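tool_call: predict_structure(chain=1)
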Amino acid sequence: MLHLKTQGDAMKTSQTTHQGGYAGVEKPGTDVSWGNPLPFRAIALEPRILFDGGVMAGLIMGLESGMDPLEPAVDGTHPTHNMPDGPGMAELQPLLDLWERAVAHPKTLVFIDARVPDLATLVREVPPDTQVEIIQGGDDGIARITQCLADKKNLESIQIISHGEPGKVILGHESLDLTTLAGNKTAVAQWGKALQAGGDLLLYGCDVAAGTQGEAFLRELAHVTKADVGASVDATGQAALGGDWDLEQRVGPIEASWALASKATDDFSGLLANQVVTNTNDSGAGSLRQAVTDIGAGETITFDATAFDPDTVAANLRTIYLTSGIAISGIVNADMTIDGDVDGDDIADVIIDGGGSGSFSIFSIALNTTLKSLELTDGTGTINKGGNVYINGGTVVIEDTSMTSGSASFGGGLYVTTADVTLTRCTVSGNTATTHGGGIYSLGTLTMINSTVSGNTAANSGGGCYLSTGGVATIDNSTITANMAKFDNAGVTDYGGGIYMGGGSVSVSHTLIAGNFLGSAGTVTDDVNSNAALTSFTSRGYNLIGDGDGSSGFTGTGDQVGTGASSLSPGVSALADNGGTTQTHALTSSSLAVNTGDAAYAGGLTTDQAGQTRQVGTIDIGAYEYQTTANTSPTATNTAVTTTYTEDAASVALTDIVVTDSDSGETITAQLTLADIAAGSLTTTGGGSYNASTGVWSISDTVANVNTALAAVAFVPVADGDTDTTLAVSIADGGEDSSSAVTGTITLDVTSVNDSPTVATTISDQSATEDTAFSFQVSSTTFSDVDSTDVLTTTATQVDGSALPSWLAYTSATLTFSGTPTQDDVGVLYIYVTASDGNASVSDDFTLTIANANDLPVAVAGLITLDEDSLATGTLSASDDDGDTLTYEIMTDGTLGTTTITAATGVFVYTPTADANGTDTLTFVAWDGYGASNSATVTIIITPVDEVVAETTTTVTVVSVETTTATE
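tool_result:
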């Protein structure tokens, strides 16, 4: 049972102006860090600093109430649960000093959330250049920090000390996370302007920078503030509790250090974190009971996501079985939340079972308590009240929670005293009261929205709800059905199978109260009943009342009210899981509640208790909105993503497209269309078909089979394909046309791998002739490269890697060889042409044969001197570059003599005419045997001599004096 209790009027909030200059100070309950009110001395309050209800408020109350400063501020009729001993004046002195302190030109500004435990330890001996600001629980912390920094410049650091969790730091009633940072970007950007260049923003709170969410938060905060930011990835606080003061995650260089007294971190007694329940034990470390004991004001109790994971842990292993009551006191646990949802869907993942004997009790003063996503069951009421939940004072919000199988004398499921309680999306079912209020008993302020009260039983009045004198109840868009108030054995008639109104006021709108009964046999209808002498119901219209005979007031617009003789059926199905966070009664199609709500409804509820959309204009009555069978379009994930792969990958897996369709039995048609069919193809191993000519992959089947096929489909790229392409996605069901299908585009982004160029056509061998100009252009199709962006460049060398001969030039731009070979170049060249894409290359070779051209022989002119009447013999001189064998002949003989010649050797004999003298010439020709010849002239000088001189013979060798060139 959940038990919340007030601590008396002495603890109620008030505002008073005091002597000494502190005005408008609130008096909330004593902070968890300080416990009982303490002696007070009046001091002047600097207007800038106002503390939250904790430390100073406790002092003020002690002064005003006249209470013994060591006396607990609770009434004596109830136990004090987990109340700490009060601190002495020595412990309070740091806070009193802080109140009186101001810093004219601070270097560092420290913001501390007032709900941080052991606050006085942190602010003990604050350095003189550090200014401390306290953020109250009711403050908008983001706005408060922005305001305080508005006139600050050149701060070395801004430091925030508060409770944290991954990607979030708590600031008063606000949190700073990615969402609120986006909504307050302009304001938060001002924080950075208060810092000097390179200034630091330090966040001291547990787990603020933990995980990807924490890292993303730090990066964005650094981006917005332009500051260097540091935060912790683990517990922050006392080492004995597993904490430290290290800021492990940083964005930018952090130069600032802890701005408060160094001893404060050693003496600090707590952790800057919410409480996490890690097991289902009834007590001890990690238990819910221990978390309730340890939690500080403003904190949240959450449950370990692994230990309470509904997907992997059975319900019985997520159940906390109580052997005795757990008490949560508002004095100790003010402004607290218990959240039993571990996976973010608001459905209760935690079951708290009272075991038919234990109870779950919360004591609260006039502060806020929130219960979220819990399944409370089998509780037994403390002091016979409130089988699962007992609330005595304060403001309590209960959301997405079920209260079942509880038992008590009053309020088998829930008992409310002077508290203000709101139920939203809650179900109270199967509870029993031995007196009044099988489901709910309230004498406080009760608000029910989108909630269900069903199957509860009271031995006397108010099978579903008993609303007592002094209470105020507001019931909107709720369903109260299948409850029973019995006749007792004394024959006294009891009333209100659905609701019994014993006093106070009850206002009802858009609520179904039908199908509730009286009597042990459950045959007498009695849905609403009131003590007519005291009060009547107030209808705000559009209610369905099965039998209104025992009540008055249901005369509002749109009210449908039956009688005992002719009751109206609720038209609902059995209590079941119809979606949403708690069980509901689904309306049948014939129910009188369907479409009979206010056509102009603007009540702000967009969904019903089951999480379904309220059909504004035809809104239904009750907690459940009847859903028509209109087609709902399917949804699909990963329809617009980029998939990267490397060229020449064998197969490219696509990110799974997962289709969902809330319409049962629908046939889903999925289609993937490849933009470039030359880029590759799609596989069909998991189902579906692929048309290679159109590039369309498609399947029409159930949601499950379509998802199987989509999970298996892969893109198979063509070899050497280096061009990106896309897949057009279309997902439709049988109830819609293609115009309303889910569409998207998947980009297939290929990372190119360099492919070597190749030889497409070989280079043919070439020939050239000595002394003849040579030109040859290599075909542009000789080399190719599948890489579409590559540009090929070519070079030419001899096959041994040496350069081309000097006579032969290669122009890469035109792929052209050119030049004129000489006799020395006659022969064969082996040439390599190499093409390169900058990373890889390929070569092809060809031969260039240089043919010899027939060169003319060279005949050498000569000079012979001989005496008159002497013979001259010699050898004609000629040469041939080709090395040809030469033959000789006389073309023109001399006039002063005759010449004989040996043709093969050029040996000649010149015989002058008798007594002839003077100069004579003869011309000879040298032939190379290939039709080429050359001639030269031999000059003969005959010197006259006396006749008496005997005849002599002169032997000569013709010496070259000039070269005469002849044509062939």
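agent: Residues 1-91, 959-968 have pLDDT under 50 and may be disordered. Proceeding to next step.
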